[in-house]
TrEMBL record, chain A:
GO terms for biological process: transmembrane transport. The chain crosses the membrane at residues 7-28, 68-89, 101-123, 151-170, 202-223, 252-272. SUPFAM superfamilies: MetI-like. This is ABC-type spermidine/putrescine transport system, permease component I. CDD domains: TM_PBP2 (cd06261). It is found in: Cell membrane. One of its GO terms (cellular component) is plasma membrane. Residues 64-271 form the ABC transmembrane type-1 domain. Signal peptide: none annotated.
Automatic annotation (TrEMBL), chain B:
It comes from Roseovarius mucosus DSM 17069. This is Spermidine/putrescine-binding periplasmic protein. Keywords: Periplasm, Signal, Transport. It is found in: Periplasm. InterPro entries: SBP, Sperm_putr-bd. One of its GO terms (cellular component) is periplasmic space. Residues 1-22 form the signal peptide.
Length: 285, 353
């Protein structure tokens, strides 16, 4: 018994240390920073002014709103594209094809995110591959700029987070008994009703798990929106970065960080409530 | 098991002794091109000191040093105007011992100007190293008439220009409007008024901007492909393009180019000041300084170094900087603490609108 306890603590220690040192303590530090008001050089007071500054102009709430809305759109698009792919890999493909298709989904993640984003920049820019191909085919008369707009951000986000939607979807759909689908057809269902009444409810934990991960990745992404986005396409993370690094305003930056944390936690909670799932049922599986 | 443990411990001990006993190191926080490999190797050959280079920019230097209270580096190279405010606010540098620096190697005016601009409470915190200006990089074959920020915003170049959402563009717009924001540094209310008007102009110009650049490589890619024909830029970017094709060059705004001097400064908790002074005196030798100029693309405060730089770079420089342009350079005065908060709010609005 005593030995069992020792083993438990030994196994638990790295995790506890990780959580405490890299997550809890820095967050407490950030919270204290965010409640510090800069009065004059090296003079500070405690208060909520940094949070008030967030709401004082339309600039910051607007950026946050934009970021949230675009992250939701990116999540929905990732689901719409990822679900058929996952269904095909889990249920229709067999044997080596299955493994090969799964491998193909994984392949882009063998290079770092920045390389993948640069790849998109080469394709989309005014003097890039797609623009040149369109001109070569005579479909447009002049160069077309496809980079530096919100659609480019969405393409980048969907592409970067696709795997994180497909993997949980495959693992839940894979576990579904094919007899359920057959029974659905035997009882007079058509393709649509079988999909919406049997497959999707069964895959719900996977859908929610994938959506939470993709939404968080999109919301917290910095690189993709910064490189692909246009002159008005600033992401909220870029605001946090510029407060910390460009303006040396760690106090406001920390407040922004907590506002983003609160927003994403609230949205994940809302998603779980609306879908009737729980964290342990989705991400915990 | 015991023996294995013993071996591991002994070799670990040797490893520790090894690092402590081998050469000294000098950790430099600097800009791209300011500590090229050839210079680092020559310094090592002469002094036996290893140089570790970390590339950075003004804001990043301040953030890094602020995070550690001035530890982690033995020498930093902030611009002269970025020393006073951060030093007052965060205390990240220590005073220089000017007697350790060979003043004879410097261009006297730049040396004196940098010392004056970085003096806090009677102590000097920085001496000049590299200087340059901000103005425009222009493709003169198509946009030869661009001379001011107002020209950059003319309808002729809609969607074909670029700039950065940093304070330099705001100041550029203020000068283009006939104001003198530098003179208003000491009067925050007046400054806010001038700079708010400049931000309005910059916001109106946003429709003309293709994309705001953030790194010199971004800008180079947009200019080489012809997607952008004129942009706010460092002189070094203009010279670099000029070396590829003479249709490009740096163009100084007719209202005056904005001049900066990057300095040598000692971080508050630097551990190897002696090596830092050795490095300063080493890189200010004219022949070494010329190597750095060739890499960085901007000119050095080292006396006589301009005679030795790459002739193509000299030619581009002489074309961009006739004497009357040099005389008209507006040198950045030290930024008082607090002004950057005002600018930050305005720039955030421009980006979000």
């Amino acid at each position: 018994m005593r030995e069992g306890k020792l083993v438990f603590w030994l196994l638990f220690a790295p995790f506890a240390a990780w959580i405490a040192l890299l997550i809890v303590i820095p967050h407490i530090d950030m919270l204290i920073l965010s409640l510090r008001e800069k009065v004059a050089p090296r003079v500070y007071e405690t208060g909520f002014r940094n949070y008030a500054d967030f709401a004082a102009t339309w600039v910051y709430p607007w950026t946050l709103l934009r970021t949230v809305v675009f992250s939701i759109i990116a999540t929905v698009l990732t689901f719409l594209i990822g679900f058929p792919v996952a269904y095909y890999i889990a249920k229709i493909a067999q044997g080596r094809t299955k493994a090969a298709l799964f491998m193909l989904c994984l392949l882009p993640f063998w290079v770092s995110e920045i390389v993948r984003v640069f790849g998109w920049m080469l394709l989309l820019r005014e003097t890039g591959l797609i623009s040149n191909a369109l001109q070569g085919l005579g479909l447009t008369s002049g160069p077309v700029e496809l980079l530096y707009n919100d659609a480019a951000i969405l393409i980048g986000l969907v592409y970067t987070s696709m795997l994180f939607m497909i993997v949980p979807l495959i693992s839940t759909i894979d576990g579904m008994d094919d007899a359920l689908v057959e029974a659905g057809y035997d009882l007079g269902g058509n393709g649509w009703t079988v999909m919406t009444r049997i497959v999707i409810p069964y895959a719900m934990p996977g859908i929610i798990a994938g959506s939470i991960v993709v939404f968080m990745l999109a919301l917290g992404n910095y690189l993709t929106p910064t490189l692909l986005g246009g002159k008005s396409g600033q992401w909220f993370t870029a605001q946090i970065y510029s407060q910390f690094i460009t303006r040396f305003n760690w106090e406001l930056g920390s407040a922004f960080g907590f506002i983003l944390l609160a927003t994403s936690s609230a949205l994940v909670w809302l998603l779980l409530r609306l879908s009737g799932q729980s964290l342990s049922n989705t991400l915990g599986r | 098991m015991r023996k294995l443990l013993g071996t591991v411990l002994t070799s670990a001990a040797f490893a520790l002794v090894g690092t402590a006993g081998s050469a000294e190191t000098l950790r430099i926080l600097t800009w791209g091109g300011y500590a090229p490999e050839s210079v680092v190797a020559a310094f090592k050959a002469e002094t036996g000191i290893d140089v570790e280079v970390t590339l950075s920019n003004n804001e990043d230097m301040i953030s890094k040093l602020r995070a550690t209270g001035g530890a982690g580096f033995d020498l930093a190279q902030p611009s002269q105007d970025r020393i006073l405010g951060p030093q007052q606010e965060f205390g990240i540098y220590k005073p220089l011992d000017l007697s350790q620096i060979d003043k004879e190697q410097f261009i006297g005016d730049l040396y004196d100007a940098s010392v004056a601009a970085t003096t806090v409470d009677g102590a000097a915190y920085g001496v000049a190293h590299i200087w340059g200006v901000s103005g425009f990089a222009v493709d003169r074959s198509v946009a030869g008439d661009i001379k001011t920020y107002a020209d950059l915003c003319s309808a002729d170049y809609a969607g074909k220009i670029s700039m950065r959402t940093k304070r330099i563009a705001l100041l550029g717009f203020a000068f283009a409007a006939g104001e003198d924001p530098f003179a208003a540094y000491s009067d925050p209310a007046k400054y806010e008024e001038i700079i708010t008007a400049a931000a309005d102009a910059m916001g109106e110009c946003k429709a003309n901007v293709k994309a705001y650049w953030s790194g010199a490589d971004d800008l180079l890619a947009m200019m080489r492909s012809g997607e952008v024909v004129a942009a706010e830029a460092w002189d070094a970017t203009g010279f670099k393009l000029n070396a590829e094709d003479s249709k490009w060059n740096f163009v100084a705004p007719s209202t005056g180019a904005l001049g900066w001097i990057d300095t040598f400064a000692l971080p508050a908790k630097g551990e190897n000041d002696a090596a830092a002074y050795q490095w300063i005196n080493f890189v200010m030798r004219p022949d070494i300084a010329a190597q750095i100029v060739n890499q960085a693309g901007s000119f050095s405060a080292s006396k006589g170094s301009d005679e030795m730089v790459d002739p193509a770079l000299r030619a581009a420089y002489q074309e961009a900087f006739p004497p009357e342009v040099i005389a008209n350079i507006k040198w950045f005065p030290p930024i008082p603490a607090g002004l950057e908060d005002i600018e930050g709010r305005l720039l955030d609005q421009i980006v979000a609108q």
